[in-house]
């Protein structure tokens, strides 16, 4: 008998024995192991008799999962975290801006002039690459460095699994896992971090749902865009005393709309493409443990913030180069950007946006943070405005919303464009850092493509419908600027 | 020829270098390879950090480490490589994490496997422990979170436990470094062979299961004399594990026989 | 007309068209070649004749045409080809399997049932989808793929509905079933099979969460309705529905669990002992429950409940595990005593 035959004999024997044992072998095996485990544990462990243990944990659990207090505590904590993040990030963000863009940038420029760097190289390196990277760092770093440690403290304490427990019934209706409430919240900080966080979901189908729908969480790169546009276009609809309030309500409305789209898409995915994926639900609720504050801050800054920031920087650098090139290289007598804008404009107007916005979303794919500066740069360059903003073909932002508004109006923007930009900022492809992270986490081109294309298709459809209904209601024929 | 000092350990490369390479572990300049297994949420990553001095994030979550983490430390002039396996409740099921963990312990043949358990939830954690002991006979039980157990007035007779399991048992509180020196010593003792483990094998299998396992394990041992974990392989073959089936077919099991 | 209105009409028309196209492609298999369709029909006929033979009946051409919902004119040439290749024989107008045909039919049945088992164990598809998906797959697998599939499932003996899976050699385990209406009253029994066709009746049974493996006792059996208890619930079914449920006697080592209830029925402050996990809990979910130590004899109690009532956190082997109601429905328990809180 050859070796191969002997091996197959073993396999045949295994098959035969299995046939005799019947279908519940796994059950029997586990029962056997647990019987041993119980015997050994009984031998070695002495538990206090009669008394109910873990009363401290039980008391906390009774409160944080109670009908009365469960949801208020959750919403309260989330509001506090968001408030600290937004308020706390303002100051360091401004400082970084002053340092990196107002101070270091001119310094680099004069240094380049001093050593006689050719103009095109100076533009590409300093106005292109450096400026994009600096922008991303200044906008992205402070909120993430505040948001993630706060979140991690709650995680280390053991509160977050209780949030998943409280929210599960809602997510179950959409075919998703309660833990998606957490990955969604992490997405409000950063979608790439939210996608990494889906590792806590141990059921394959629900994890994919959480990954694909994370982009519907309005991330911190998009909050500033929303706030700016809401202030310019929606705040202006009401008296000045109310405008701040109305603009904030509009932004929160967009974020909630994102939650609605998240639920809708989750439900749709679980009923269609993902219905065959394995799904299980068990949620272990660990005991509460006092968090170690300094260690948490250190590790969450290192693990979450810096890793994600590093990925963003790597993607922002080449994008900076591309942005500078399209805005400064001429074909014929206009720039590449203007060629593309002219080409994209009909489609843009059809869905209630314009060519500038579409081009900005294409070349600013690495980071949502640089979308507004790119739009401003392209608008100014496209119109050939003189004396407004910075006309030298590089990213810029203006100090007042009003000044930004006047550039945009000159670019043909209306209230409808503003609303559509807010919608499209919520519903478009994830940034390239997130796309890369999705690929790393799923290891599948199929799911990465779906996660990238689904939101942008939805965005185009939604802005299209809004635009057409808008025109239908106002009975205005299409006016092309 | 005298060996240079930094590769002092002449005869200690007991681990299976080829097998580990296949699993993506670089064993150059390493004397011993140690795997870290455990249930989710037992502070396994904290133990990892305490041993290696690294600062991997550890969350109060079931199932945090999905990506395998690696680190190194040296003790008693031996160089160790530590592999943090995914936290799992069991090694018998089909999830990807469990596959990674069980195949690493089986095919990677680490010199020592440290099983981290939550002292307050010993019974549940022993399920995994007993499975690991079916695969490898070089293991150390790290009885972590012992402070939490004490707070809940749970007392553990670690000697009885060590006797029943047949492996060293070290109580630790990894987050405050308590018990880590003792854990290092136990790892070193098992790795160098100063302590020989006599691991507990599961005794309470139902009669038909025990009979079938015995038959199949016997056949395996006949085919591959000296196979250290024939019972475990029999469990897996009876479950239809395709990885093990393939290993039978292509004779890979031969490599599991310790010289 | 307003151009916006035109745009909108155009858009919705496009969406409707796309949707229709997708439905057409997925429903009608219009992408299949002629020979593929022939093979499928041949195999469907063989399987149908096998089932007919199992119920000790015989079939005519019109019976087949009715059962398979295919026109006679389409079946006829296939039947002729099958007779010519020795898969079936005809006597009068009765069609019968030849030994070769039976062997072929058993292979198809084997693939179908293995595939249903696969869908139940390794995917997240719903029970109501299994049959339809297996019908498609049974025509596609070759010999090697089938034996791999069987091995990876641990060479199972029964499919998820309780039907025996023919072995590679064509052996079929004999079964001792009785339809529920003819099972004796007040004798404990176990549900061993639930027929998945017709789908309308199967859906009704699924909706009541009557599951293979559950213990039953018939309380009253009349020509108008069958009253029986199953896992702490009393059910009333019409005989036509009940006939699709088959019951067998309990094995010698099994004890009828008179007061077995579902874990989901346990309330805060009560304690219980696990009796077992229903056979309907399969694959990854079943393994996870076992891994967490939910085994016969394990003590469980409710720890606390989510504000929306689902899931519920249970205390199991000193750990707190939250389970959704649909999973807790599949764990059978027996209440022991009510637990008194200290403090």
SSE topology:
The complex is a heterotrimer of chains A (481), B (259) and C (343).
Chain A: H1 3-21, H2 25-44, E1 45-46, H3 55-64, H4 70-115, H5 119-157, H6 160-173, H7 180-189, H8 191-197, H9 204-213, H10 223-234, H11 240-271, E2 283-284, H12 293-328, E3 330-331, E4 334-335, H13 336-350, H14 355-363, H15 371-383, H16 401-410, H17 415-426, H18 432-442, H19 445-474
Antiparallel strand pairs in A: 3-4
Helix pairs in contact in A: 4-5, 5-12, 7-8, 8-18, 9-11, 9-19, 10-11, 10-16, 10-17, 13-14, 14-15, 15-16, 17-19, 18-19
Chain B: H1 17-22, E1 32-38, H2 44-52, E2 69-75, E3 78-84, H3 96-107, E4 112-118, H4 122-135, E5 139-144, H5 146-151, E6 155-156, H6 158-165, E7 169-171, H7 180-192, H8 207-223, H9 230-239, H10 242-249
Parallel strand pairs in B: 1-3, 1-4, 4-5, 5-7
Antiparallel strand pairs in B: 2-3
Helix pairs in contact in B: 8-9
Chain C: H1 3-28, H2 34-54, H3 61-68, H4 72-84, E1 88-91, E2 94-97, H5 99-122, H6 127-137, H7 143-152, E3 178-179, E4 189-194, H8 199-207, E5 215-221, E6 226-230, E7 233-237, H9 239-242, E8 245-249, E9 261-262, E10 270-277, H10 283-291, E11 299-305, E12 312-316, E13 319-323, H11 325-328, E14 331-338
Can you walk me through this structure?
The complex is a heterotrimer of chains A (481), B (259) and C (343). By secondary structure, chain A is mainly alpha-helical. In chain A, 74% of the residues lie in helices and 2% in strands. Chain A has helices at 3-21, 25-44, 55-64, 70-115, 119-157, 160-173, 180-189, 191-197, 204-213, 223-234, 240-271, 293-328, 336-350, 355-363, 371-383, 401-410, 415-426, 432-442, 445-474; strands at 45-46, 283-284, 330-331, 334-335. In chain A, strands 3-4 form a two-stranded antiparallel ribbon. In chain A, strand 3 (330-331) and strand 4 form a beta hairpin. In chain A, helix 7 (180-189) packs antiparallel against helix 8 (191-197) and helix 9 packs antiparallel against helix 11 (240-271). Chain B is 40% helix and 15% strand. In chain B, helix 8 (207-223) packs across helix 9 (230-239). The radius of gyration of chain B is 18 Å and the shape is globular. Chain C has 4 domains: 30-97, Winged helix-like DNA-binding domain superfamily/Winged helix DNA-binding domain (Arc Repressor Mutant, subunit A, Orthogonal Bundle); 108-170, Winged helix-like DNA-binding domain superfamily/Winged helix DNA-binding domain (Arc Repressor Mutant, subunit A, Orthogonal Bundle), CATH 1.10.10; 178-249, Ferrous iron transport protein A (FeoA) (SH3 type barrels, Roll); 261-338, Roll (SH3 type barrels), CATH 2.30.30.90. Chain C is built from 11 helices and 14 strands. In chain C, the strands form 3 sheets. A 6-stranded antiparallel sheet of chain C has the order 3-8-4-5-6-7. A 6-stranded antiparallel sheet of chain C has the order 9-14-10-11-12-13. A two-stranded antiparallel sheet of chain C has the order 1-2. In chain C, helix 2 packs across helix 4 (72-84). The longest helix of chain C is centred in the N-terminal third of the chain and has 26 residues, at 3-28. The chains are: A mainly alpha (481), B alpha/beta (259), C alpha+beta (343). Strand 2 (283-284) of chain A pairs antiparallel with strand 13 (319-323) of chain C.
């Amino acid at each position: 008998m050859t070796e191969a035959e002997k091996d197959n004999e073993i396999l045949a024997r295994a098959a035969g024995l299995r046939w005799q044992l019947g279908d519940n072998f796994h059950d029997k095996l586990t029962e056997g192991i647990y019987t041993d485990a119980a015997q050994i544990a009984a031998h070695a462990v002495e538990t206090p008799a009669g008394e109910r243990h873990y009363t401290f944990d039980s008391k906390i659990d009774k409160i944080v999962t109670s009908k009365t207090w469960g949801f208020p505590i959750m919403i309260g904590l989330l509001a506090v975290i968001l408030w600290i993040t937004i308020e706390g990030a303002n100051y360091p963000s401004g400082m970084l801006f002053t340092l990196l863009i107002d101070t270091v940038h001119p310094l680099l420029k004069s240094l380049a002039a001093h050593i006689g760097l050719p103009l095109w190289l100076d533009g590409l390196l300093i106005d292109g690459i450096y400026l994009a990277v600096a922008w991303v760092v200044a906008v992205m770093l402070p909120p993430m460095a505040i948001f993630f440690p706060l979140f991690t403290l709650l995680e280390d304490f053991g509160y977050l699994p209780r949030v998943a427990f409280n929210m599960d019934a809602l997510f179950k209706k959409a075919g998703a896992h309660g833990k998606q409430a957490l990955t969604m919240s992490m997405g409000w900080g950063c979608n790439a971090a939210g996608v990494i966080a889906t590792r806590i979901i141990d059921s394959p189908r629900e994890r994919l749902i959480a990954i694909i729908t994370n982009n519907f969480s309005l991330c911190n790169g998009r909050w500033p865009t929303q706030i700016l546009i809401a202030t310019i276009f929606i705040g202006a609809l009401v008296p000045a005393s109310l405008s701040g309030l109305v603009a904030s309500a509009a932004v929160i409305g967009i974020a909630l709309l994102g939650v609605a789209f998240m639920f809708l898409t989750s439900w749709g995915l679980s009923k269609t493409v993902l219905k065959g994926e394995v799904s299980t639900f068990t949620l272990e609720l660990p005991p509460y443990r006092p968090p170690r504050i300094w260690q948490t801050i250190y590790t969450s800054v290192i693990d979450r913030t810096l890793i994600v920031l590093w990925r963003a920087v790597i993607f922002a650098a080449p994008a900076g180069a591309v942005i500078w090139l399209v805005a400064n290289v001429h074909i014929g007598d206009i720039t590449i950007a203007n060629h593309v804008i002219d080409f994209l404009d009909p489609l843009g107007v059809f869905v209630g946006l314009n060519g500038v916005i579409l081009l900005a979303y294409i070349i600013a794919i690495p980071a949502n943070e640089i979308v507004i500066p790119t739009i401003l740069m392209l608008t100014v360059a496209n119109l050939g405005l003189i004396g407004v903003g910075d006309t030298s073909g590089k990213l810029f932002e203006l100090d007042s919303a009003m000044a930004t508004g006047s550039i945009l109006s000159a670019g043909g923007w209306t209230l409808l464009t503003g609303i559509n930009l807010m919608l499209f900022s919520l519903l478009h492809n994830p940034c390239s850092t997130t796309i890369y992270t999705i690929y790393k986490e799923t290891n599948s081109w199929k799911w990465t493509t779906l996660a990238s294309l689904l939101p942008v298709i939805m965005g185009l459809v939604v802005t299209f419908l809004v635009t057409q209904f808008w025109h239908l209601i106002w009975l205005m024929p299409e006016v092309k600027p | 020829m005298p060996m240079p000092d930094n590769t002092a350990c002449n005869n200690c490369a007991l681990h299976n270098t080829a097998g580990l390479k296949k699993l993506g572990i670089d064993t150059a300049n390493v004397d011993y390879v140690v795997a870290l297994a455990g249930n989710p949420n037992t502070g396994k990553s904290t133990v990892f950090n305490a041993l290696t001095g690294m600062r991997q994030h550890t969350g109060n979550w079931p199932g945090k480490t999905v990506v395998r983490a690696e680190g190194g430390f040296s003790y008693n002039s031996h160089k160790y490589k530590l592999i943090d396996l995914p936290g799992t409740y069991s090694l018998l099921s089909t999830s990807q994490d469990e596959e990674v963990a069980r195949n690493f312990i089986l095919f990677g043949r680490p010199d020592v496997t440290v099983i981290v358990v939550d002292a307050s939830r010993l019974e549940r954690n022993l399920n995994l422990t007993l499975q690991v002991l079916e695969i490898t006979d070089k293991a150390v039980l790290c009885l972590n979170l012992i402070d939490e157990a004490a707070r809940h007035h749970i007392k553990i007779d670690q000697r009885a436990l060590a006797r029943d399991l047949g492996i060293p048992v070290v109580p630790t509180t990894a987050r405050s470094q308590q018990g880590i020196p003792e854990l290092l010593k136990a790892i070193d003792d098992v790795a160098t062979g100063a302590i020989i483990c006599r691991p507990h094998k599961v005794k309470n299998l139902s009669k038909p299961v025990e009979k079938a396992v015995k038959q199949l394990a016997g056949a395996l041992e006949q085919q591959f004399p000296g196979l250290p974990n024939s019972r475990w392989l029999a469990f897996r073959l009876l479950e239809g594990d395709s990885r093990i089936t393939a290993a039978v077919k292509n004779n890979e099991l031969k490599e599991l026989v310790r010289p | 007309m307003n151009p916006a209105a035109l745009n909108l009409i155009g858009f919705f028309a496009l969406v409707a068209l796309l949707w229709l196209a997708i439905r057409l492609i997925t429903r009608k298999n219009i992408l299949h070649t002629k020979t593929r369709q022939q093979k499928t029909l041949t195999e469907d006929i063989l399987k149908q004749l096998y089932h007919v033979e199992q119920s000790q009946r015989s079939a005519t051409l019109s019976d087949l045409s009715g059962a398979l919902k295919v026109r006679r004119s389409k079946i006829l040439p296939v039947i002729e080809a099958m007779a010519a290749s020795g898969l079936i024989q005809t006597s009068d107008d009765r069609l019968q399997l030849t030994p070769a045909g039976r062997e072929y039919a058993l292979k198809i049945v084997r693939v179908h049932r293995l595939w249903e088992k696969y869908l139940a164990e390794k995917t997240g598809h719903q029970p109501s989808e299994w049959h339809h998906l297996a019908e498609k797959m049974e025509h596609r697998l070759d010999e090697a793929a089938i034996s791999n599939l069987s091995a990876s499932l641990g060479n199972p003996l029964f499919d998820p509905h309780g039907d025996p899976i023919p072995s590679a050699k064509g052996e079929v385990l004999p079964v001792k079933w009785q339809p529920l209406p003819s099972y004796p009253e007040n004798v404990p029994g176990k549900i061993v099979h639930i027929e998945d066709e017709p789908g309308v009746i199967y859906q009704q049974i699924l909706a009541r969460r009557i599951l293979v493996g559950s213990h039953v006792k018939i309380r009253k059996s009349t020509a108008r309705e069958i009253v029986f208890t199953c896992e702490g619930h009393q059910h009333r079914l019409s005989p036509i529905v009940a006939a699709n449920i088959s019951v067998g006697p309990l094995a010698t080592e099994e004890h009828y669990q008179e007061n077995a209830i579902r874990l989901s029925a346990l309330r805060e402050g009560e304690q219980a002992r696990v009796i077992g996990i229903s056979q309907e809990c399969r694959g990854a979910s079943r393994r996870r429950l076992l891994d967490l130590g939910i085994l016969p004899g394990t003590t469980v109690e409710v720890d606390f409940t989510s504000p929306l009532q689902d899931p519920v956190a249970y205390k199991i082997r000193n750990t707190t595990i939250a389970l959704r109601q649909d999973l807790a429905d599949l764990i059978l328990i027996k209440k022991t005593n009510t637990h008194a809180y200290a403090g």
